[in-house]
Amino acid sequence: MPPPRRGLLTSLLGLRSFSSIAYPHPHTPAPLRRHEFVADPTTSTSRGVIGGIGGGSGNPLDPTQLLRDDPVAITASLWVSSFRAAAAASTSGSGSCTPAPPQSLTPFLSRLELWVLAYQKAYADETGSYLPRSSIPASTLAALLTLRNAVLDARFRFGNRLTPFLQSPLATNAPDPATLSKRKLRALLTTPGPPPFQDRVVQELLLLLLEPVYEARFSPKSFAFRPGRSPHAAIRTIRRSFAPYLWYIKGDLSPLLHSPDPALVVGALIRDVRDKKVVDLIRSALLTPVVTASDDAAAKKKKTKRKYQKKKVLPEGEPKPDPYWLQTFFGFAPEEAQTQPDWGHCGVLSPLLANVCLDELDKWIEEKIKEFYKPSKSDVVGGDDGIEQGNTSWPEFVPTSGPDKTRKVDYIRYGGHFLIGVRGPRADAAVLRKQLVEFCDQRFRIKLDNENLPIEHITKGVMFLDHVLCRRVVYPTLRYTATGGKIISEKGVGTLLSVTASLKQCIKQFRKLEFLKGDREPDPQPCFRMFHATQAHTNSQMNKLLLTMAEWYRYADNRKKVVNFCSYIIRGSLAKLYAAKYKLRSRAKVYKIASRNLSRPLKDKKGQSPEYHNLLRMGLVDSIDGLQYTRMSMVPDPDYTPLPSGWQPDHEKILLEYIKLTDQQTLEEQRNCIREEGLITPQDYISMFVWGYKKNAVLLPSKVSDAQGSTEDLGSDTDGLDEKELGNEGNKSFPKLAEMS
């Protein structure tokens, strides 16, 4: 067994976050005083202070005296403890794999270091730039301390604009609400607007505390609103695991993401989080009403004559809007990813709370997967042990089996949309659908029927995440090594799962974005939003869109076809735009001047003597990049790299590897295995090498008369080694010295 691979922890240890975990402080901490606490006694020895009161030198009311630890290290300790509890629960002999509820989160809620980290994240979202910890002014630290004390004392209210504890960095000259008139106060309280900046800081802090707790508990079959689990990971999981299934059940629980029941959310939350302060904060965020614009106010608004408006110049600190290519790509978002939960004053915490509620569905279906599993020995998909017998390098291929097939169920969820695959008769899918309707009605109070949960066969095509799942029969040549080392080639037959991009859906999105019209023969339309942009800027924006589209369809079997179609639509749209802009009458005239990829300039200035290339060389004009993927051969091939079985995101792998390396039982097992195999660890080998070097160096003869005794001592240590291993090959100085003596 090889020694522990500590190189995998480089990226984790590079954050300076696990230094206090792996190497605790050598001295013993002093006894705790009143109002002091230890956030995690097993991982940290630093003490926080509640209410600005604590021991130590300096002013106890100075916020800088409370910033003692690295906030990333504190957060990392919570990640490690949560995943360690989940790993212990999964390896225990008990029937339930759910870890015990975590420790109280109030000590973490009291750490001013975490409040500073939450402020930095909210500041980056507000201004679009990162603020180092050393650049935070003292007044902001004092305001953060006041906000923290208000949260701990239950004086904080979401949506409160009258008593701001912390001002937005962009609202430096905001008036004090105490100095406003009644009319302005009424307008401040009734006019809808962005949430107060202090609300966003509290939301970021709650996300820092709750995300590690639930990431260790969530099912591996959910892929939305979670770090490291992108739509691409969901598509690759479908290609890896859903090949043998015949019937599919599609469901949509998006109503739960639009209008949640606060009692349902708090009930799901309180099962895993037993901290009263955290639960009360989230309950307050869900129950506090949000100020919205009324229809009567919009109707009574006077119609004013549109006046000439000057071009708005954004301030330096204000974040710039999304570029045109990014806005266009957002229009291609699949139906499953269009619903982003936003619950009251929860803000960035809403997606996590949505997954907390839907995790009950994940756990329920995981139990049904075990219940519906009925193996068959004659089926190649799974035997008595449940292990797939197919080709792991070609997981989407399933060899043909006999009439008696293994009955099994699999499941995947992305946001409020889920997909269930059933291998077996359609009756099994109907029974599972009936039970699913009853569960959603009782647990989520959502009425589902057969129309909301259709059962579709794989041969008709099943759409999920804008990709169509279908199956076709193939007859590949199978080569394998028989007994005796003989290679046998024979014709096989089986089914192949095909994951293709929906061209129909792509045309629908282009039509919605007004890039084309028509269904059977799509006709590109000019992109007039880029009318006032230069040719170089327009081509650059569209190239970014095409590159992003090519990356989005990376795992589609028809990647070349669909990306080349997108390039055709965009190229035709730009050609019509340039024809209208430069009065060239037709697309053919544009292609003749600007070439096929629109890389040549379409219009030069009158009386301009130098050529375009000379101006470009002198830096007087912008270089014009040609459009990408104008030919199908330029589009990259689909990525068929199989997803490993039991795949996990990188951060989860690193956390689990770190937990294994810090487990004394694992280290002892590795040492015993090394001793049994007669191996030697690199550390022991280096120690022996250094010790032998020191011993031999001391025994080297200082005088000719001592040579014989030295060589005898050296020979006693190196009797079992030849000259080559000792490094004395070609050097006979020791025998000569022995003869001289």
Plain-language structure description:
- It is a single chain.
- α11 runs antiparallel to α12 (276-287) and α14 runs parallel beside α19 (535-552).
- Among the domains are: 218-292 and 321-377 and 396-501, no CATH class; 504-634, no CATH class.
- It has 28 helices and 14 strands.
- With 741 residues, it is an alpha+beta fold.
- β10 and β11 (487-491) form a beta hairpin.
- It has a four-stranded antiparallel β-sheet, with helices on both faces. It has a four-stranded antiparallel β-sheet with strand order 4-12-9-8. The protein has a two-stranded antiparallel ribbon with strand order 1-2.
- The two termini are 49 Å apart.
- This is Domain X domain-containing protein.
What labels would you give this structure?
741 residues, 43% helix, four-stranded antiparallel beta sheet, 28 helices
Fold topology:
Blueprint: H1 10-13, H2 19-22, E1 36-38, E2 47-49, H3 71-91, H4 106-109, H5 112-127, H6 138-152, H7 182-190, H8 197-215, H9 231-241, E3 247-252, H10 254-258, H11 262-270, H12 276-287, H13 295-300, H14 324-330, H15 335-338, H16 350-372, E4 397-399, E5 408-414, E6 417-423, H17 426-443, E7 455-457, E8 462-464, E9 467-474, E10 477-481, E11 487-491, E12 494-501, H18 503-512, E13 516-517, E14 523-524, H19 535-552, H20 559-581, H21 587-594, H22 612-618, H23 650-661, H24 664-677, H25 682-699, H26 707-717, H27 723-726, H28 733-740
Antiparallel strand pairs: 1-2, 3-6, 3-7, 4-12, 5-6, 8-9, 9-12, 10-11, 13-14
Helix pairs in contact: 3-5, 3-8, 3-23, 5-6, 5-8, 11-12, 11-16, 14-19, 19-20, 20-21
